[in-house]
DNA sequence: GTCGAGACTTAGAAATATGCCG
DNA sequence: CGGCATATTTCTAAGTCTCGAC
């Protein structure tokens, strides 16, 4: 375990607690300048108002009807509410899926009265049309709200945030990340999820555990209700929790990313990754050596580590079958997920990966590997069925146990952080040659993009992508014409001014020149933007920026390149990375 | 060693806000 | 100044990893 980040300013000031404490107490110090608590203790004082509950169900107007088999039918309140969840989603592809429909129907029937259940036995015979239209109408109304109405709503929301969105943690007033209890609805899993469509039930105060300090004012449950439990556990960071009925998982109310608790953890994460930097050569030498081991388990571990390091694959924990979509990571790869090519496209020993990873995002890649890795893979695949585990003698527990013996704090995911950050740093060095601001930004985005590609961070292309590209192209053409015109005018003005000492004419030349240059600049800016956008069509940059790239690399780059920080980090991101912005100098090296 | 619960980070989609252009 | 594209925020699912019971 790390006690303190490697090159952190001196944090442990136990020898002079008084001035330190008073500053901290008065809120004059930033958290990254404060002393840390002993291992495992996350806070000494925690006070909050409890989570915010969504409004109760508001019954539909009397005149709205549901039809079963063409017959008008008045549903009871509970059945009506759940039916509306489904009706609201009718425009979504989800509601056409067999699994979604069956799951919904099964759970919906549980909410029905006995009579309703006797009657309604076939989802195909259900007509939610009026519910659906009612919902669409509501959405339309929401869209058409006047400025004044929007303002009123905004203020009401702000009031809720002011009251429930903050807590006191030690001497800091901190923003809470998700202080709103998740509203009920139909479960929307990603990809081919076996539980899609199941009813996600309404959470009541009786389901919620509150965590706060003993000496704090315990939050009041909503009128007429009780909390499930109030506990005072300062070894955890959550303020409230409940169990989700669909997956049986615990959900938490936690602090915002700009908080002390989250920030410290983030900082520590990058410090561990930097430690890996200085040890990675040795670790690579070792797993290369392990490829020859007599122990099959060791060899499998070595190949897995090779993939995790080279391709930034996730660890790949086992998953409970039938509970989630069928996705894999490194350790859970199956024989069917890779194909071996002795030679492909002029390269030798090529492994072709094709599998669904986290969030059912497809990982597809063709990678040349070393002979030894290739031979090992052949061996691991011998006499196996497509559905068998590739690494049958390995799991994430064993892998991480081994890693933590190589370096304290080292786990599989540290390689992702390390490789992402080091790639950004290298790319920024290679790509940036002092140019115009838009070109510098393009370089930054390209470096970011290299990381996003490494980590396989994808997105659905924006709906209006083609249109917006075409618009931009048209604008570029327009600007080009304008530039030609501007150039011609400049030439003309120069000609007129030549051999003429009239300062007025000289002045005109200057003016035309400026106009031409401005035009040129704008054209360049647009062309750069077009390139950037095209390259970014199916790549999501935000995930790596937020979770994998040591912000100090970016802050140092901005300082060196004289780029405004807000060109690469928006307000939220600057808040989250305040610690890095505060402490980073030009010479920072990851 | 194995297993499941628990706690926390990482993820892309969807909703909402912003701002730009005619 | 309104409509639309883009940027930001919100939402919550889906991972990783640790720990304690057996």
Structure write-up:
By secondary structure, the protein is α+β, with helices and mostly antiparallel strands. It is built from 18 helices and 15 strands. The longest helix is centred in the last third of the chain and has 33 residues, at 465-497. The relative contact order is 0.08. It binds a DNA duplex (22 and 22 nucleotides) through residues 178, 180, 182, 187-190, 193, 236-238, 241, 244, 247-252, 254, 262, 265-266, 269, 314-317, 319, 324-325, 327, 329, 357-361, 396-397, 400, 411-413, 457-460, 462, 464, 467-468, 471, 540, 542-543, 546-548, 570-572.
Rounded to the nearest angstrom, the radius of gyration is 30 Å
Number of helices: 18
Integer average pLDDT: 89
What is the second-level CATH architecture of the largest domain? Beta Complex
DSSP helix fraction: 40-55%
C-alpha geometry: globular
End-to-end C-alpha gap: 20 Å
Largest pleated sheet: 4 strands, mixed
Q: Low-confidence parts lasting 5 or more residues at pLDDT below 50? A: 1-21
Which descriptors would you attach to this protein?
single chain; 3-stranded antiparallel beta sheet; alpha+beta; 4-stranded mixed beta sheet; globular; DNA-binding; Topoisomerase I, Chain A, domain 3; 590 residues; disordered N terminus; 4 domains; DNA Topoisomerase I, domain 2
What's the short version?
The protein is α+β, with helices and mostly antiparallel strands and 590 residues long. The chain has 18 helices and 15 strands. The chain is globular, with a radius of gyration of 30 Å.
């Amino acid at each position: 375990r790390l006690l303190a980040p490697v090159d952190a300013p001196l944090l442990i000031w136990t020898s002079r607690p008084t001035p330190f404490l008073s500053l901290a107490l008065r809120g004059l110090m930033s958290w990254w300048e404060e002393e840390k608590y002993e291992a495992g203790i996350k806070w000494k004082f925690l006070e909050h108002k409890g989570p915010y509950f969504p409004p109760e169900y508001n019954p539909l107007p009397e005149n709205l009807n549901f039809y079963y088999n063409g017959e008008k039918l008045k549903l009871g309140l509970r059945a009506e509410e759940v039916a509306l969840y489904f009706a609201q989603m009718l425009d979504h592809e989800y509601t056409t899926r067999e699994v979604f429909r069956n799951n919904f129907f099964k759970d919906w029937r549980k909410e029905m009265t006995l009579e309703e259940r006797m009657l309604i036995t076939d989802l195909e015979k259900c007509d939610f049309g009026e519910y659906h239209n009612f919902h669409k109408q509501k959405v339309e109304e929401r869209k058409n709200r006047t400025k004044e109405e929007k303002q009123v709503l905004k203020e009401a929301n702000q009031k809720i945030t002011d009251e429930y969105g903050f807590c006191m943690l030690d001497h800091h007033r901190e923003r809470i990340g998700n202080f709103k209890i998740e509203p009920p609805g139909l479960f929307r899993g990603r990809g081919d999820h076996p539980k899609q469509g199941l009813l996600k039930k309404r959470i009541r105060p009786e389901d919620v555990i509150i965590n706060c300090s003993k000496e704090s004012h315990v939050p009041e449950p909503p009128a007429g209700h009780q909390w499930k439990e109030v506990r005072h556990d300062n070894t955890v960071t959550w303020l409230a929790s409940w169990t989700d009925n669909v997956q049986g998982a615990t959900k938490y109310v936690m602090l915002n990313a700009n908080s002390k608790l989250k920030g410290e953890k983030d900082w520590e994460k990058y410090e561990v990754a930097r430690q890996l930097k200085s040890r990675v050569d040795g670790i690579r030498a070792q797993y290369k050596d392990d490829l020859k081991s007599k122990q099959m388990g060791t060899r499998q571990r070595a190949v897995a580590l090779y993939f995790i390091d080279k391709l930034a694959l996730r660890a790949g924990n086992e998953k409970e079958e039938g509970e989630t979509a069928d996705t894999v990571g490194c350790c859970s790869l199956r024989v069917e997920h890779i194909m071996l090519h002795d030679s492909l496209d002029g390269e030798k020993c090529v492994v072709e990966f094709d599998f669904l990873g986290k969030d059912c995002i497809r990982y597809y890649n063709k990678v040349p590997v070393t002979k030894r890795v290739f031979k090992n893979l052949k061996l691991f695949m011998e006499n196996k069925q497509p559905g068998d585990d590739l690494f049958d003698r390995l799991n994430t527990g064993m892998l991480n146990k081994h890693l933590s013996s190589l370096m304290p704090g080292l786990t599989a995911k540290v390689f992702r952080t390390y490789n992402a950050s080091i790639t950004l740093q290298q790319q920024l060095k290679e790509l940036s040659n002092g140019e115009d601001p838009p070109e510098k930004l393009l370089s930054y985005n390209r470096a970011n993009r290299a990381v996003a590609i490494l980590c396989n961070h994808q997105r659905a292309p924006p709906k209006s992508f083609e249109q917006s590209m075409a618009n931009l192209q048209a604008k570029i053409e327009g600007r080009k014409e304008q530039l030609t015109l501007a150039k011609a005018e400049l030439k003309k003005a120069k000609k007129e001014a030549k051999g003429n000492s009239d300062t007025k004419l000289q002045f005109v030349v200057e003016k035309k020149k400026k106009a031409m240059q401005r035009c040129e600049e704008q054209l360049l800016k647009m062309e750069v933007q077009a390139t950037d956008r095209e390259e970014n069509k199916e790549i999501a940059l935000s995930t790596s920026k937020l979770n994998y790239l040591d912000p100090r690399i970016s802050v140092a780059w901005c300082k060196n390149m004289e780029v405004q920080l807000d060109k690469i980090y928006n307000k939220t991101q600057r808040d989250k990375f305040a610690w890095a912005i505060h402490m980073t100098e030009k010479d920072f090296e990851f």
